[in-house]
Design goal:
The protein is an alpha/beta fold. It contains 8 helices and 12 strands. It has a single domain, classed as UDP-N-acetylmuramoyl-L-alanine:D-glutamate ligase. The chain has an 8-stranded mixed β-sheet.
């Protein structure tokens, strides 16, 4: 079964200025980079969508109104030297009219992935509207920088995906969440069920780290893909770790395909 998933959230543009540095600036102790190429990829919720497409998902998309923030990165001699953000690094909130017009996107979906970078898209009103739009049979997967309380209206079927920094910042809130997949970087991922008091740890499978941008997007997309196919949680975690190992071994904001995941070996 190919799942139908809806991605809702804050989309960015990841832009890379790639070049070569051969000398230091006479003005400051920084390299002078000659730019040879500029490339860009969808970031944030857009990167979640790209990961799902790479897996063959029938994906639908719902983003706030444009413009989308741009994260610029300067790459010199294959090393990231600087990053600067533009468009005020904020997004417009979802509007009541926009969500009403998007009702058709919620029909017959197997799951919803919410990507919240806490840049302004999700308000109490928009979360309340989403709670009324998401079908009761759809699984919900949330990656939020703001803590889980913002999405309490979505009920007990939510899987939250905090990293360690987010977990520590909102640990009291996460204590009450029924399902948490905690991303622990080099230590892999751990699933925590508050309902059954059960945990399952899946170690990292990374062999080569080139770029970690978007790894969290890869994790939630891959987990959701396999979970909505009815795979058991330990298997979903293992696949997510494989996908992350593949994505971070590539330059820039990258994805992992089904073929790459199936061929992955230690």
């Amino acid at each position: 079964m190919i799942p139908k998933l809806l991605v809702i959230g804050e989309r960015f543009t990841d832009r890379y200025f790639i070049g070569t540095a051969t000398r230091l600036s006479p003005e400051a102790p920084i390299p002078v980079v000659t730019i040879s190429e500029v490339i860009q990829f969808p970031g944030g919720a857009g990167n979640v969508t790209e990961n799902l497409k790479a897996l063959g998902v029938l994906v639908r998309e719902l983003y706030p109104p444009t413009p989308y923030p741009i994260k610029n990165r300067l790459i010199g001699n294959n090393h990231q030297l600087a990053r600067w953000d533009q468009d005020d690094d904020t997004v417009k909130p979802f509007t009541d009219i926009q969500l009403k017009l998007a009702k058709h996107l919620f029909r017959d979906i197997d799951g919803v992935i919410i990507s919240d970078y806490n840049k302004g898209a999700f308000t109490p009103e928009s979360v309340s509207a989403l709670a009324g739009l998401i079908p009761p049979t759809a699984s919900i997967f949330v990656d939020t920088k703001a803590g889980p309380t913002r999405f309490a209206l979505l009920g007990k079927r939510v899987f939250f995906f905090p990293n360690m920094k987010e977990w520590l910042a909102h640990s009291a809130e996460y204590t009450n969440c029924p399902n948490v997949v905690r991303k622990e970087s080099e230590n892999g991922m751990i699933y925590i069920s508050r309902q059954s008091d059960h945990t399952h740890h899946s170690p990292s499978l990374a062999k080569k780290i080139v770029n970690v941008s978007g790894a969290g997007d890869t994790a939630i997309a891959t987990f959701a893909y396999f979970y909505t196919q009815g795979r058991p949680i330990p298997e979903c975690l293992e696949y997510a770790n494989k996908a992350c190992a593949i994505a971070i071994s590539k330059p820039y904001t990258s994805v992992a395909t089904n073929e790459e995941i199936n061929a992955f070996s230690l």
